[in-house]
Write a structure and sequence with these properties.
There is one protein chain. By secondary structure, this protein is an alpha+beta fold. It contains 9 helices and 5 strands. The chain has helices at residues 12-19, 26-34, 43-54, 65-69, 76-92, 96-100, 107-114, 155-164, 185-201; strands at 125-131, 137-145, 169-175, 205-211, 216-218. A 5-stranded mixed beta sheet has the order 2-1-3-4-5. The chain starts with 11 loop residues before the first helix and ends in a 10-residue tail after the last strand.
């Protein structure tokens, strides 16, 4: 059955206007993005085919245009719309504006404001946050994206941006894709090195957070950073 043959009150777009987007199924939301079907299939049927092929809605964040195009009935235009919708959602939930307004008061504040940066990351990503003398965030840099279980960053890269931002304090953050937030020997050695250099340059390392699965480890909270 084509969309035009479906009663108005059962059409995805009309249902969204009547009851709200949050009450629609994944199939209906995809049908709205697809807008139209093919000669033999409605947009709803295409969206159902897409969901069956991909597996689940969570897997859409890993999709590429070519992967979507490989599904019968979905061409370049429809694939591009889906990819664009996924990217918009990703950006909305990245909390970019909130991060820019971050003020360092404790590890939990930092964690809550940056945890979405690491959503679905399969590699270790190492960020540094740079703060002014009132501990307001003035800069953020992704310094390294590593392999599945290892990131490599040198203290000189961390402090290069500290000088560029005229920062007076630093917070380092990286993730463990495995979900295990226990610091590795490399994590401990890097933290000690950055802390020591920070003392010499009067740009203290306030904290180093390791992000796992809905959890984090704070070097500061665990007494592993001494800025005294």
């Amino acid at each position: 059955m084509l969309i035009k043959e479906i009663p108005d009150y059962e059409r995805p777009r009309e249902r969204m206007l009547a009851i709200g987007a949050k009450n629609l199924s994944n199939e209906e939301l995809l049908a709205i993005l697809l807008r139209c079907g093919t000669k033999n299939k409605s947009a709803k049927e295409l969206s159902l085919d897409l969901l069956k092929e991909i597996g689940n809605i969570e897997s859409f964040k890993e999709l590429t245009i070519n992967r979507i195009k490989s599904i019968s009935g979905i061409g370049l235009s429809k694939a591009a719309i889906i990819i664009a919708a996924v990217e918009i959602g990703r950006r909305i939930f990245s909390n970019e504006n909130t991060i820019k307004e971050t003020r360092y008061t404790n590890s939990k504040v930092i964690y809550e404001n940056v945890k979405n940066l690491f959503l679905d990351k399969k590699q270790e990503c190492f960020y540094c946050l740079y703060f002014d003398n009132k501990q307001h965030l003035i800069g953020r840099e992704l310094l390294f994206k590593g392999t599945v279980n290892r990131s490599i960053v040198h203290p000189r890269e961390i402090f290069k941006y500290a000088y560029l931002y005229s920062a007076t304090a630093i917070v380092c953050i990286h993730n463990h894709p495995s979900g295990d937030i226990k610091p590795s020997l490399e994590d401990i050695e890097l933290t000690d090195a950055v802390s020591s250099i920070g003392k010499i340059n009067k740009i203290p390392l306030l904290d180093h957070l390791i992000i796992g699965n809905n959890n984090y480890y704070s070097f500061s909270d665990n007494g592993k950073i001494n800025n005294g």
